[in-house]
Design goal:
This protein has about 425 residues and is of the alpha/beta class. The chain is about 40% helix and about 15% strand.
Length: about 425
């Protein structure tokens, strides 16, 4: 029988807690809500706490950008905002933000202690790393008087730990092939999983231009208030400015979001549609929209670093995201050479990613990622060859070593693009 750790042996540091929760469950990923629901119910909220408005955001790609835009606009409106995202780049505390700032390790440790107590009281239930962390984030939010909480789904939607909390509005940014071992290998199967965050009678915002029929059918079956881009909301614009239209709302003459990339107007439109659907509870004026979109930031989403050669950081790790990255690189103009720094997880479609970028990259610097899920440099090299890419391939011991080699080879008019995984970007960032 699994026993909880004795109270006197509880970890005292955040690193200790993260080691503990990573080893608690027998499987790193174990989708389902039964375990987390039981612990959630045992995790008693502080007395007098009022429930904030909850916005849940899912999607194959774009959900991080959409969450960041929602947070920035709501903060500019003067609301008290909590944000939970995953994964992190450099510090676990990046995942939990209050009023635009990541929480302190001490605050998170206190929340983890409360979750551990509730876990024992619920029958010593085993939780995954993500489930434990999600409950801890919710505990942090419940101890602070907040107006709105934004929750980013980790994987899928229907059975993701975030779905243990009832949303007032649900957003699906995009639906494409990823995590096939958990979600299925078709857009229809994946669309059904992502639609699982919808609720009866509540706004269900979808920014995918061609949503799967399974998603629309599920929304209809529960009578969710489905809002589709191109039908219920959308955008138009030129090179200078853009405008949003939605149900009974128009916002014109806006500058482009501070987040770079060809797909960011889709994400911004989804954020505005969500806020419009909640306008009776969270009214947002035009000034706040302008300020929020102008000041929003999110590391490693087509992030172009200052200086020469140009260095682009992007966590693109599936073919859909790689296609967007390819388009964004094309829009940057001419560069004599493009050096790729690539590390990926073995369970990703490495060949598909490389195929989307084979015409953009002239030299590939590849490296393994740590842990059992990391692909070897040899596996990445083989995937590049199978993709039909013609650029030279050079192998290195780590993404950081790959970046330093690319930096040494690149002239000031060239560019280096670091992509493939959060782990890849995180390893390179200290060397920038």
């Amino acid at each position: 029988m699994r026993e909880g750790i004795p109270a006197q042996a509880e970890p005292q540091t955040l690193d200790g807690w993260l080691d503990y929760i990573s080893a608690l469950h027998h499987r790193p990923m174990d989708l389902g809500l039964e375990r987390i629901n039981k612990v959630r119910d045992a995790l008693v909220a502080p007395a007098g706490a009022e429930r904030p408005v909850v916005i849940t955001v899912a999607g194959t790609n774009g959900k991080g950008s959409t969450c960041a835009m929602l947070e920035a606009i709501l903060l500019a409106s003067g609301y008290r905002v909590g944000l939970y995202t995953s994964p992190h780049l450099l510090r676990y505390t990046e995942r939990v933000r209050v009023q635009g700032q990541e929480i302190s390790p001490a605050t998170l440790v206190s929340a983890l202690q409360q979750v551990e107590l509730a876990r024992r009281q619920a029958g010593d239930i085993s939780l995954t790393y993500f489930e434990f962390g999600t409950l801890a984030a919710w505990r942090v939010f419940s101890e602070i008087e907040l107006d709105v909480v934004i929750l980013e789904v980790g994987l899928g939607g229907r059975l993701d730990a975030v779905n243990a909390f009832e949303p007032d509005c649900a957003v699906v940014t995009s639906v494409d092939i990823d995590h096939v071992e958990f979600l299925g290998n078709t857009r229809e199967s994946i669309g059904f999983e992502k639609a699982g965050i919808f609720r009866a009678g509540k706004p269900a915002i979808v920014a995918d231009p061609v949503p799967p029929q399974s998603l629309k059918d599920f929304a209809a079956s529960i009578n969710a208030d489905l809002q589709l881009i191109g039908r219920d909301f959308g955008y138009q614009g030129d090179r200078q400015q853009w405008g949003y239209w939605g149900r009974g709302a128009k916002r014109a003459g806006m500058a482009f979001p501070a987040l770079r990339g060809a797909n960011q107007l889709l994400n911004a439109s989804a954020a505005l549609a969500a806020l419009d659907s909640l306008r009776e509870r969270l009214p947002v004026d035009m000034g706040a929209v302008r300020v929020g979109l102008a000041t929003v930031s999110l590391p490693a989403r087509f992030q172009v670093m200052p200086g020469k050669p140009a260095v682009i950081l992007d966590v693109a790790h599936n073919p859909h995201a790689a296609a967007v990255l390819s388009e964004n690189l094309s829009n940057m103009g001419f560069f004599p050479e493009t050096y790729a720094v690539l590390g990926m997880l073995a369970d990703k479609d490495i060949e598909g990613v490389c195929r989307r970028l084979k015409d953009r990259v002239t030299v590939w610097h590849v490296a393994p990622l740590p842990g059992p899920r990391g692909a070897t440099a040899e596996a990445i090299q083989e995937a590049i060859f199978r993709s039909g890419a013609s650029g030279a391939v050079r192998k290195h011991e780590s993404p950081r070593a790959a970046y330093l080699a690319a930096r040494q080879s690149a002239d000031e008019n060239d560019r280096i693009v670091v992509f493939g995984s959060f782990l890849t970007v995180a390893d390179v960032m200290p060397a920038l």
